[in-house]
Design a protein that fits this description.
Layout: H1 4-14, H2 26-35, H3 38-55, H4 57-60, H5 99-135, H6 137-152, H7 155-164, H8 171-198, H9 201-208, H10 213-249, H11 262-269, H12 278-305
Helix pairs in contact: 2-12, 3-5, 3-12, 5-6, 5-8, 5-10, 6-8, 7-8, 8-10, 9-10, 10-11, 10-12, 11-12
Length: 311
């Protein structure tokens, strides 16, 4: 006969009450750890503010970022630019344009470049990683040698080289240059995850039952290999923001500055950084803060999804 205390203990274990993560999936237990992580909460708050600001920028911006509303206050002879004043909380830039409105609308371009570059890089990495990890043999050797060559070149140098290939630099060239840099990162990570899945018990069982290779790859190996890739994509977003800003800073971004972008604004500010450092402070601070937010979330996700950290 079971005593009441032992029966209660068995009931608690069956309900998942015996341990903080007992009886729950890895995703649920990871979310429980994320909710208690100050780093994740801070990073998520930064990303949330950035996304909301980018989405609502057309309504939050008080002025057209291309209009020289404060041009009468610009004196190139005396190196003067419009200071902060009512209606223009951050003042103006060298051409008399409202800096506050340009910062808000610049967040849209920064988010667009980072997301599209990451999506394109993720797509290319999924194709190469799946080919290398699922087929193996000479396909794996060819793909991984190509990946090794790309990884041997510093990311920023590779992005600059790709951007310089285009006769006319636009926002699309920045997106493509940053995306190509990210492809080998995703490809190597996915290939490693799929190789681990190839030796797993459920894949071996599926092969023994005569399941076709295509079904094994796309129903078993690939879905179970995407966890690390999804986490890496969060970290890559931070890298994409910094790389895109670096390309725009070096003059490889869109030549038309009527559509503001933070890296482009930072590059324009270098001519007057000694006398008007605020023109560089705001875009540089925004780039650093947003990149930090994505990095904090990515690191927290990686730690939370690591099975070794389950307690």
């Amino acid at each position: 006969m079971l005593t009441s205390s032992r029966r209660q203990r068995i009931d608690d274990l069956a309900a998942g009450g015996g341990a903080p993560d007992a009886g729950v999936s890895l995703a649920v237990s990871a979310w429980r750890r994320l909710r208690r992580s100050p780093l994740f909460l801070v990073g998520a708050a930064i990303i949330g503010v950035f996304v909301v600001m980018a989405l609502l920028a057309p309504w939050l911006a008080q002025h057209d970022p291309a209009l020289r509303l404060l041009d009468d206050q610009v004196s190139r002879a005396r190196n003067e630019i419009p200071p902060a004043q009512p209606g223009h909380p951050l003042g103006g830039d060298q051409q008399g344009r409202d800096l506050y409105s340009r910062m808000l609308l610049g967040s849209q371009q920064t988010l667009l470049v980072a997301v599209l570059a990451t999506v394109i890089g993720l797509g290319g990495g999924l194709v190469l990683g799946t080919l290398a990890g699922a087929i193996g043999g000479w396909v794996d050797s060819v793909v991984m040698r190509l990946v090794d060559v790309m990884l041997s070149i510093p990311s920023l140098l590779l992005a600059v080289s790709v951007g310089a290939l285009f006769a006319r630099q636009t926002q699309f060239t920045v997106i493509l240059a940053v995306a190509i840099v990210q492809i080998p990162i995703f490809a190597r990570l996915l290939r490693g995850s799929m190789l681990a899945q190839r030796a797993s018990d459920h894949v071996l069982a599926a092969r023994a039952l005569g399941v076709r290779r295509r079904a094994i790859v796309f129903r078993h190996m690939l879905p179970n290999s995407l966890g690390p890739v999804v986490v890496q994509s969060t970290l890559v977003l931070a890298i994409a923001i910094i790389d895109a800003a670096a390309l725009s800073f070096l003059g490889l971004g869109a030549a038309d500055d009527s559509v503001p972008e933070w890296g482009q604004m930072l590059g324009r500010a270098q001519d007057v950084i000694d006398s008007h450092p605020q023109l560089a402070f705001w875009p540089a601070g925004a780039i650093i803060t947003v990149a930090l937010g994505f990095t904090l979330v990515g690191e927290s996700l990686r730690d939370a999804l690591d099975p070794k950290n389950r307690r």
